[in-house]
Write a structure and sequence with these properties.
The chain is mainly alpha-helical and 233 residues long. 53% of the residues lie in helices and 12% in strands. It contains 10 helices and 7 strands. Helix 2 packs antiparallel against helix 8, helix 3 packs across helix 8 and helix 7 packs antiparallel against helix 8.
Length: 233
């Protein structure tokens, strides 16, 4: 009689990881469109590669996301960043063959024969299901427990995805002029005005605005300032 362990793939069969061509193609297209449009308007690449501007935008966005997100969710979202450009999938045929192998082994040697196999399984979901079966847990109870694990995993993944979505929803706006009268690449004369200051009569001020999903929101929770004191500045 053939050994059932030899009729199935080895537990913990490695997944296939490959670059996500759609994501890579989208990034290349977006970068090309930005640079192309800039050059067509007479701009230069250095106009969009300013380090200080990148620090303000990226640093401010990351800070706002960190304030509004629990640490465990934030760490999980950071770990999922690799999934943006890498596609890690299991072969459906290999998974089906492995499950059939476990079923054949259990039919021939009983559920207890799966105990050693469960120790070698790398997938925590499958390992838990096999251990529950070996322990003699009722089938409906196993189904309920595994369904609960699926729902918890989905909720956790959804919360981590929302972290990345919220990062794209925050915008920082800094301005010191009410109107800009020149464009990038214009030839300027000595003393020629670049724009006009706000006509508030309060002197020179820096305009700061935080936007979430296109709508202005108060920056006080992020900056930890008292709005009543800020109005007096």
């Amino acid at each position: 009689m053939a050994d059932p362990a030899k009729s199935r793939p080895a537990p913990g069969r490695p997944s296939v990881t490959r670059p996500d061509l759609a994501t890579l193609g989208g990034l290349i297209m977006a970068f090309g469109a930005i640079v192309g449009g800039l050059i067509m308007e007479g701009g230069k690449l250095k106009d969009i590669t300013q380090l200080t501007a990148a620090i303000i935008v990226l640093g401010g966005t990351c800070g706002a996301v960190m304030v509004s997100t629990p640490m465990n969710i934030l760490v999980g979202a950071a770990r999922r960043l690799s999934h943006v450009i890498l596609d890690k999938t299991d072969s459906p045929e290999a998974v089906v063959d492995e499950l059939i192998g476990y079923a054949v082994s259990a039919r021939r040697g009983g559920l207890v024969s799966l105990e050693n196999d469960a120790l070698e399984v790398q997938d925590p979901f499958l390992r838990k299901a096999l251990n529950l079966a070996v322990d003699g847990t009722d089938l409906q109870e196993i189904r309920g427990m595994m369904q609960l694990d699926i729902e918890l995993s989905e909720n956790r993944a959804l919360a981590e995805v929302k972290v990345l979505e919220s990062a794209g929803g925050y915008d920082l706006v800094l301005a010191g002029l009410e109107r800009v009268d020149v464009r990038s690449g214009d030839a300027l004369l000595a003393g020629e005005p670049l724009g006009t200051m706000p006509g508030t009569g309060a002197g020179s001020r820096l305009y700061f605005e935080l936007r979430q999903n296109g709508k202005g929101v108060s920056p006080a929770p992020w900056l930890e300032i008292d709005l009543r004191k800020a109005r007096k500045l």
